[in-house]
Amino acid sequence: MGFENIERVVRIVSWKPDLVADAKRVLDTVCVPCVDGKMVHSLQHHSTTTTTKCELIHTDVDGPLTESLGGSVYFMTLLEDSTGLITAMRNKTKGMVPDVIKARNSKLETLTGLSVKWLHHDGAKEYVSHDHMALYDDKGIKLEKTAPYLLQQKGEAERANRSIMERVREALVDAGVEEEL
Length: 181
Hints:
With 181 residues, the chain is of the alpha/beta class. 37% of the residues lie in helices and 15% in strands.
């Protein structure tokens, strides 16, 4: 219910249950379940190196989600490290990942005139397929894999995915439609 709402209830009702009688006293305390519910893993050491445009791309695939009207159940984010440019593409399958990376890398190279040097990903099988390895070799892209099941190491891509999903949920709630859409 929250301490501010408890204080409001105390001011509104004429009778005061023992638990909320002294709401002002509890306003400065910490609600342990609230803190635990919002707790996330602590951040790992951040690199202090700076990158130039297109030098490092963080990427991740999220899903499966509820199938979209176009039949997509995954989405993939690519985050350019130095500028923070995020692109998100919907995918019907994880097998589409090499094609999406190839298209987005080409677009970034066209826009900036620079080539991608590093690709930071979680090492999932959709990133290390035979098609992908050939693409990396052809373009001279070096792979930087994170440790498995350690979300803190791929924090930039995870935060991008979370931000996108939060905005999608907010838009759905604002439109008054079900989350399944």
